[in-house]
Amino acid sequence: MEYTIHPISLAVIRRNKWCLLYPPSIQYQVDEEVWLPINIWILKGGGKIILVDTGLVAQEAMAVRKPKAMNVVGFVEGLRQTGVELANIDMVLITHLHYDHVMHLPLLKNVPVVVQEDEVRFARERHPVYGYAYNDKVQEIINTTKFTLVNGRTEILPGIELVPTPGHTRGGQAIVINTSAGKAVLSGGCAIREDFYPPAGPPALPVIPPANHYDAYTAYESAILTKSLGDVVLPLHSIEVYSENIKVMPPFPPCLTSTEPFKPFQVPDIPAKPGV
Predict the structure, then answer these.
(1) Which residues contact residue 63 at a Cβ distance below 8 angstroms, ignoring those fewer than 6 apart?
(2) Which pLDDT belongs to residue 275?
């Protein structure tokens, strides 16, 4: 079974790219503010319509972490732009339960919502480090949603496989999707292109762990696994999807597969003290 992938950017948050690139990877640090999109994804194939993640509105982002944020399109209107009504959705796949991925779940009644069991457990623990991401509203959504729980690697539909990718969260899952251009992988944690396609240069890493994680080593191994699962990785917060207004994949745009380096952050020289 083959699917087409339709990304929708619901909102954008003003952030520096380094917030998604693990700081000790000093050769990859950048000082570049961007509008980081909150993307959701519609998958169409075999007569099925699958939604991956449900996003949020800008006001919810500003309430949680006080960043600059703007709405791009409403949830229902965004779905309609891909030819989908709420009632058409056959299944929802949740990569992880952070607030920016689940806020519209209450609108999806009587639709299977699939998540890794370990992610629900991790979210309910609400460790202080991630307290903001699994906030009170998220707890309410978790407690009122009847999840379809999976444990480990699962082919949830012909041509769609769920693969655990812990690191950003403990129960995150990547979505591997068969398409006419090969296998596309939606990353299981928050990421941008540079996490999976970093610039060359010593000491070169094949991937960069996300800066926001519960375990850096596990996040690194999961990024390696994610990259090995298909022909292209589609990062959940892909800036290119928003900035280039991509409507449907494949064909996969070069911006998501290119290894072209981005501009590194140059640390300024520190003047020597007089007499040193």
Answers:
(1) none
(2) 43
Nearest to 4 by CA among 242, 254, 239, 180: 180
Ordered by start, the domain boundaries in the chain are 4-245
The sheet that has 160-164: what strands, in order across it?
A: 154-157, 160-164, 173-179, 182-186, 232-234
Using N-to-C axis directions, what is the helix angle for 117-125 and 136-144, rounded to 10°?
A: 140
Rounded mean pLDDT, 50-63:
94
The closest of 128, 119, 254 to 189, measured between CA atoms, is: 119
pLDDT digits (tens, 9 = 90+) for 140-191: 999 999 999 999 999 999 999 999 999 999 999 999 999 999 999 999 999 9
- Is the separation of the CB atoms in 157 and 91 below 8 Å? yes
**Alpha carbons 42 and 265: distance in angstroms, whole number:** 35
> What pTM did the predictor assign?
0.91
> What helix, strand, coil percent values describe the chain, rounded to 5?
30, 25, 45
Distance CA 132, CA 109 (A): 26
User: Coil, strand or helix: which one is 122?
Assistant: helix
4-245: CATH, from 3.20.20.70, 3.60.15.10, 3.30.430.20, 3.40.50.720: 3.60.15.10
The set of residues, in sequence order, having a beta carbon less than 8 Å from that of 256 and lying 6+ positions away, is: 193, 232, 233, 234, 238, 240
Q: Which residues contact residue 275 at a Cβ distance below 8 angstroms, ignoring those fewer than 6 apart?
A: none
Between CA 239 and CA 70 the distance in angstroms is 15
